[in-house]
What we know:
Elements: E1 3-7, E2 10-13, E3 18-25, E4 33-39, E5 46-51, E6 58-60, E7 68-73, E8 78-83, E9 92-99, E10 108-109, E11 113-118
Parallel strand pairs: 2-11
Antiparallel strand pairs: 1-3, 3-8, 4-5, 4-9, 5-6, 7-8, 9-10, 9-11
Amino acid sequence: xxxxxxxxxxxxxxxxxxxxxxxxxxxxxxxxxxxxxxxxxxxxxxxxxxxxxxxxxxxxxxxxxxxxxxxxxxxxxxxxxxxxxxxxxxxxxxxxxxxxxxxxxxxxxxxxxxxxxxx
Length: 119
């Protein structure tokens, strides 16, 4: 049973940084395209970033390009989302996702980690 566990969320001020982590158990992070999604209150879940299983393709939603960086450490079975220059509109619950198709929601989800950004 593949499980994803996110960590690293919290409360920061606008302009500050956070790094989210997603650790995979019951499987190998290198087997999946790993993505981050987010959902703010009253809004639909939104794609944020994805990194392929090979690490050779990465994609971001336009609103985070140049500020967020997705990476993976296969030895730690973990994928990261480095979030810099955070804005109040980045506040949401961030979810880790694992799947087999690029830019398509995968079958496996974490429980989410809350990111709050004060202005």
